[in-house]
Structure formats: C-alpha cells, structure tokens
Write a structure and sequence with these properties.
The complex is a heterodimer of chains A (about 230) and B (about 210). Chain A has helices at about 5-20, 25-45, 50-70, 75-80, 85-90, 95-125, 130-155, 165-190, 195-225. By secondary structure, chain A is mostly helical. Chain A has one domain (about 5-225). Chain B is of the alpha/beta class and about 210 residues long. In chain B, the strands form two sheets. A five-stranded parallel β-sheet of chain B has the order 6-7-8-3-9, with helices on both faces. Chain B has a four-stranded antiparallel β-sheet with strand order 2-1-4-5, covered by helices on one side. The chains are: A mainly alpha (about 230), B alpha/beta (about 210). The interface between A and B is medium-sized, with 29 and 31 residues.
C-alpha cells in the first residue's frame, strides 16, 4: 500500500518533533537567548519607562529574529551529515512535502514557542497588555515567515562548513520587511491605533513566503545533493 | 516485488567533478535476477556511478533508464522502487533502531512494527530494536541499515560497500540476503572492494582510473 501525502507530512512532523524533544537543551537555547537579550536592553540603556516603551517593539522584534536564526543552521545540517537527506530525497515522496513538514515542525518548536513566551518579555519591556494580542499574532506570522526564509538559507548553505554567519547574512536582509511591519504593528497597538495595515502586510509576506519558499528550499537541497 | 520489464540501463554516462573527469562513458545493463558488482581502485567513480543510478546526481552526458524509460521523466516513481545504502548508515542517533526504520520505510509503504522487528531479526540485530542508534557499534548500525534495505521491499538494491564494518558472519549474512533478493527476481548493483562469493547470476564491472 502506498503512503498518502497527509501521512507523509505527519510522519515527518512526528519524527522532527520527537528528535527535538530528545534534545531539550537545543529546544530551550533560542528561548533563553530571547529572554536574555530582551532583558539586557533595559539593563544596559538605563532608560526611562516611557522611552523603554517606545523602544520595546523594536527590541522585541530584533531579539525574536536573532533567536529564530540560532536554530536555523541545524535545520538540514544533521540530515545532510548523516546521509538521511539522501534517503529523504530518494523516498519517492515529493521533497517539497517533506521540506514543508520539516519547516513547520521547526517553527512549532522555535517560533511558536517564542510567541508563547513573548508576553513574559513584553511585561519586562513595559509593553501594555492591550498590545499583547497584536504582538503575538504579528510574531507568529513573522517567525513563520522567517522560518521559511531561513530554510532557504539553510538549504543553500547546508553543504558548507561554518555556515552560520553566511546564513545570517543571507537571511537577515530578507527579514527587514518583517522587522519593519512587525514592530510597526506592535507599536501601533501600544499607541492604541489600529494595527490592521501592518498586520495585513505581514500576512501577505507570510502567505507569499509559505507558498513559494518550499520550492526554493527543495531546489537548493537538490543542488546540495548533487 | 514490482515486476520489471527490462531492468536498469546506464548508457555512456559522463560525470565531471570540477576539472576531474570521473566517469568516462560508463555503460551498464542490469536485468531482473542479476547482480552487478562494480569494482575498481579508489577514486575511479564507483560511488559516483551509484549516485547517478539513484538519480541524485545528473550526469553531464548519457542517460539512465529504467524499463527503457529515462529516469528523469518519472524520477519519484522510479525512486520509490529502489533502495540505496550509502557510506553513511543514515540513522538518527537520538532515535531507536526501530523508530529509524519506521520512518524510513514508512515513507515508502505502510508498514507494521512487527514486520520491522522481523527485518531487524533477519540481520541479527533484533535485540537493538529499542536502543538509540547512537549507542550501537558501527557494525550494528550497518546491520540496522541493511534491515532497512530489506524492509523497503524495493526491486532495485543499490549498495555502496555493504560489507564495510561487518564481521565475517555479517558479511555472510549480507551475501545471503543479496542472493535471495536476486534469485527472487530482484536487481542489485553493489560497490565492493573485495571479491563477492554469492551464488547467483553475477557480473563484474571494472572501473579504471
């Protein structure tokens, strides 16, 4: 009996999650990084509360982008190193589907987890609770988009040693729109202005990336496998 | 087992790696019920040839055909019918042997854990089924990988140094598995340094520098 696409998706997803949870320290690192970086800002700048409130959306978003980047490097690397990537490519299932499942699983354990701890950080940064919903929605879309952008970078750099810096150089410029609209949405929510415009832009970026990136990642991986 | 009309064909394949001309017009035919042993000194492109046959590597010139059709035209369908064992056993250290197999084989077909345990039993590592792959020895990992080859139930086996890291008993076991696969009408292309002593239709392809 052959295996359907939904089963393949779930199979890959379950495996990825299982692998992540067997290495809890790798799971926690980006989160702890996020918490620490955001704590450093108020400590180092010795800001007034009102100033902190003005800066906090930017700080929150920059920290979120950087901590998401931390774990992206490993997205395909271990599979490429131990030969699993070849087996995945040869499974007779579409590599696009497998890549999609892998990236979604990666987002669940990094981006989604980050969204969940964001209110904690927001309190530390003096972001009022009225802005929490907007902040979390925008972060969810932003981190998902970033996971996909990062997956393209990870696919391109998987064959290189020490690819971490190069990956950041590829991904961070692409992530600028996310930072602009994400921080803007949060900022507007803090000022109690409708953040809809910025959120729509984020949503558009998110949909655009989620639909096209899987093909780009697959193409990048196929080149690596040659 | 899938029925195969004409088997596998490799026609005048050329591969360059940078300036290095690795494969220089290699041709090969494998019919069902036949094993081809690719031999030759290091660096003559044995593994490269195997990767070309899998479809992972596109040759600069020449074609690979399966049932008289170029594999580029139906790559996923073709790849579903083969199983490839590379230098790396392709096992995740954090997953148990059984979990590794469940995933790898599960992508190809529906499979019950009992069947996978049986495959592990065939290669003599049934007792390792629930151990994380990272605690297994190199030879045991190789045996687990061989169990994966077996459980895939593919008609075309492409094995790169299947005897590496194996003890005498393990080598005999792999030979026996290959023999029964080929005698049941399967195809196999094996890269190995030493002479194969397998009682089945066997052909040797020598690659030269």
């Amino acid at each position: 009996m052959s295996v359907g696409p939904v089963e393949v998706f779930l199979l890959v997803m379950r495996r990825e999650l299982r692998l992540s949870f067997r290495r809890p320290e790798q799971l926690l690192q980006p989160l702890v990084f996020f918490l620490i970086v955001t704590t450093l800002f108020p400590l180092g700048l010795n800001l007034q509360l009102s100033l902190l409130r003005d800066m906090s959306p930017g700080v929150l978003w920059v920290a979120a982008l950087l901590s998401s980047l931390l774990s992206l490097d490993a997205l395909f690397k271990s599979d490429a190193d131990d030969g699993t990537l070849e087996q995945l490519a040869l499974s007779g299932q579409g590599l696009v589907l497998i890549v999609t499942a892998k990236t979604c699983a990666h987002w669940l354990v990094t981006g989604a987890a980050l969204v969940l701890v964001a209110p904690l950080v927001a309190i530390a940064l003096n972001i009022p609770s009225v802005a929490f919903a907007t902040m979390m929605v925008s972060l969810a879309m932003g981190t998902l988009t970033l996971s996909w952008l990062g997956a393209i970078g990870a696919g391109l750099t998987v064959g290189l040693r020490r690819s971490n810096v190069l990956l950041s150089l590829i991904v961070l410029p692409l992530a600028m729109p996310l930072l602009i609209f994400g921080a803007a949405a949060t900022d507007r929510a803090i000022s109690q202005i409708s953040p809809a415009g910025a959120l729509y832009f984020l949503a558009a970026l998110c949909v655009f990336t989620c639909t096209l990136a899987p093909f780009a990642v697959t193409a990048a991986l196929r080149i690596t496998l040659e | 087992m899938n029925s195969v009309d004409n088997g596998l064909g490799v026609e005048k394949v050329h591969v360059w790696r940078g300036d290095l001309h690795v494969l220089r017009g290699v041709s090969l035919q494998v019919t069902p019920g036949e094993l081809v042993h690719v031999a030759g000194p290091n660096g003559t492109g044995k593994s490269t040839l195997l990767r070309v046959i899998t479809g992972l590597l596109h040759p600069e010139q020449g074609t690979v055909t399966w049932c008289s059709r170029a594999i580029d035209r139906f790559r996923a369908e073709y790849q579903a019918q083969l199983t490839y064992l590379s230098h790396e056993p392709a096992l995740k250290g954090d997953l148990t042997a059984l979990e590794n197999l469940r995933f790898a084989v599960g992508l190809k077909r529906q499979v019950a854990p009992a069947e996978l345990r049986e495959a592990l039993g065939h290669t003599g590592v049934a007792h390792c089924a629930d151990l994380p792959a990272r605690v297994l020895s190199a030879g045991q990992r190789r045996r687990v990988a061989m169990a994966r080859v077996l459980a895939m139930r593919a008609s075309l086996w492409l094995l790169d140094e299947p005897f590496a890291n194996l003890d005498a008993q393990g080598s005999e076991l792999v030979s026996e598995l290959l023999r029964s696969h080929v005698l049941q009408g399967g195809l196999a292309v094996i890269v190995a340094h030493h002479e194969l002593r397998i009682e089945c239709p066997l052909r040797r392809l020598e690659l030269h520098a």
